Amino acid sequence: MRLAVFGGTGAMGTAVVGRAGAGGGTVRGLGRGRRRRPGALPGAVQTVVGDVRDTGAVRDTVAGAEAVARGPGRGHDPR
To answer: Are residues 5 and 31 in contact, defined by beta-carbon separation less than 8 angstroms?
Structure first.
């Protein structure tokens, strides 16, 4: 399965990404950058750096996906 994940570097998102990747799926995650949680996404995960408010980044993340998962967000955090 080809899975797109929003919030893949959060506590719940890393669990989703890990399980999907372990099951042989292709995973692409959107994140604001690896500096938030270095190493949070396994190397096999395709990473799109951006923000959910950026339509181009969202398009790139979901392109070719069969399913989409979203981790719980806390709203906008400008850090």
So the answer is: no
Amino acid at 46: Q
Low-confidence stretches of the chain (pLDDT < 50) are 38
Q: Any residues with CB less than 8 A from the CB of 26 and at least 6 apart, and which?
A: 1, 2, 3, 46
Residues 6+ apart with CB under 8 A from 16: 3, 5, 8, 69, 71
Note the pLDDT of residue 17: 79
- State the Cα–Cα distance between residues 40 and 42, nearest whole angstrom: 6
Among residues 60, 62, 59, 53, the alpha carbon closest in space to that of 5 is found at 62
